[in-house]
Design brief:
Layout: E1 2-9, H1 13-24, E2 30-33, E3 45-48, E4 51-54, H2 66-73, E5 81-85, E6 88-91, E7 96-98, H3 110-121, H4 135-143, H5 145-160, H6 180-189, E8 201-205, H7 211-220, E9 225-226, E10 233-235, E11 240-241, E12 245-252, E13 260-262, H8 266-274, E14 277-285, E15 295-297, E16 307-309, E17 321-326, E18 336-345, H9 351-364, E19 367-369, H10 371-374, H11 381-400
Parallel strand pairs: 1-2, 1-12, 2-9, 6-15, 10-13, 12-19
Antiparallel strand pairs: 3-4, 5-8, 6-7, 10-11, 11-12, 14-17, 14-18, 15-16, 16-17
Helix pairs in contact: 1-11, 3-6, 4-5, 8-9
């Protein structure tokens, strides 16, 4: 039995951040296990048609957390990144609107602007009605019937590919309140009005794709990173992995339902199997998409893919674009370059109670969930890094007490 103070399962952003924080504080008794042959998780990149392509769909460093930037710039210095003003759009087929839609209704044809403004005026939140509990009702209450029916409902049906009534509402409370007054002002002045979107700018590496920084972080771990080493089993009570590795503390960043969990109760087993997720297929096309948007959301349900990434707009000398399609809607094509069986955790109504049950059991046994899959939260890489740093520092501090 190989023994470590820390066993870290998965070399994605959160696992890498956790490992490097251990090193920063002088802790060397740890091992990171990664099933792929390079680090990065869903943020890995590969060369396709002479330029980088992100195999997990679209990933960018869009953060307002200075300490996360400082941390990542240790591995890929700031002068090796480009910074962009985000330009994204929603393509309805007959017309296109800049994202976010609530700030750009003024770009619609006039008759549609009137329809949208009228629907927003009668949205439940604007009328002071209490928030409903059902997903579809909540979306209409928050954004109005037209935004819901034209964009939010079809897009969510495509990206998650489960009945919308299975989704909870706890995860979407950060959607903007669409004010009738602000939308009317925007349409009259023909310019965006209201709050600036959270991710107005983003960083992207000048070379090698978004996977570059994570690959460098992995290489700097040296022998502390075991590549091509899939986690097959985890005994939470005994804190052992694959029956031959043990850790005083285990950090799990990979999907709970992708591991064989040994010696667990039926209650925990049912909680793990109750977690839902979606996968994606990434397809590459060499044609010019004919616009200068960085990425485009596609709510049209006649098209299988839900997002287009226009790589020439953020990768120097690149051409073409790639699409992201839910695996339930995809089919094998000559354009396919990657399949991710676990891409997005699904925010079902039952998920909070399931994860609470799992987290209480694992923490009691010094096993901690971390990152997108360990916490089953749809977080971006910057938040995953933040969580990795914070958890490592917290556990090290507690060990000194």
């Amino acid at each position: 039995m190989e023994k470590y103070k820390f066993l870290i399962l998965g070399a994605g952003p959160s696992g890498l951040a956790f490992a490097h924080t251990l090193l920063k504080h002088g802790e060397r008794s740890f091992l990171v296990m990664e099933k792929e042959d390079i680090a990065g998780g869903l943020c890995r990149s590969k060369m396709v048609d002479g330029s980088p392509l992100d195999i997990g769909g679209g990933h960018f460093l869009d953060t307002r957390l200075p300490h996360v930037l400082e941390f990542l710039f240790q591995f890929l210095p700031q002068d090796q990144w480009n910074i962009f003003d985000r330009k994204s759009a929603i393509d309805f087929g007959d017309y296109r609107v800049d994202y976010p839609i609530e700030s750009n209704i003024w770009q619609l044809p006039v008759e549609k602007q009137v329809e949208y403004i009228h629907a927003i005026a009668y949205a439940g939140e604007n009328l002071g009605h209490p928030a409903p509990e059902q997903f579809e009702d909540w979306i209409q209450w928050k954004l109005g019937k037209r935004i819901a029916e034209d964009y939010m409902f079809p897009y969510n049906r495509k990206i998650w590919s489960i009945p919308l009534e299975q989704l909870g509402t706890y995860w979407i409370d950060k959607l903007p309140s669409v004010s009738f007054k602000e939308v009317l002002y925007s349409c009259l002045t023909k310019e965006p009005y209201g709050k600036i979107p959270a991710h107005k700018t983003f960083y992207y590496p000048i070379k090698h794709g978004y996977g570059a920084v994570w690959e460098l972080m992995g290489k700097e771990l040296g022998e502390k990173l075991a590549l091509s080493s899939p986690v097959q089993s985890l005994d939470i009570k005994r804190k052992t992995v694959n029956n031959h590795l043990s850790g005083a503390i285990i950090i799990n960043t990979i999907p709970w339902n992708s591991i064989r969990l040994d010696d667990i109760s039926s209650d925990i087993h049912n909680a793990v199997t109750g977690l839902q997720y979606s996968g994606i297929q990434v397809d590459y096309f060499s044609a010019d998409p004919g616009n200068d948007d960085h990425w485009i959301y596609i709510p049209d349900e006649r098209l299988s893919y839900h997002r287009i990434l226009n790589r020439k707009t953020f990768i120097d000398k690149a051409k073409g674009y790639w699409t992201e399609t839910n695996l339930k809607r995809s089919s094998e094509t000559n354009a396919m370059v990657a399949v991710n069986n676990h891409a997005y955790p699904l925010n079902t109504r039952e998920k909070p109670s399931l994860m609470k049950k799992i987290a209480e059991f694992t923490k009691m046994n010094n096993v901690y969930g971390l990152g997108r899959w360990g916490t089953w939260e749809h977080i971006n890489s910057d938040i995953a890094v933040k969580q990795g740093i914070e958890l490592a520092e917290s556990l090290l501090k507690n060990m000194k007490k």
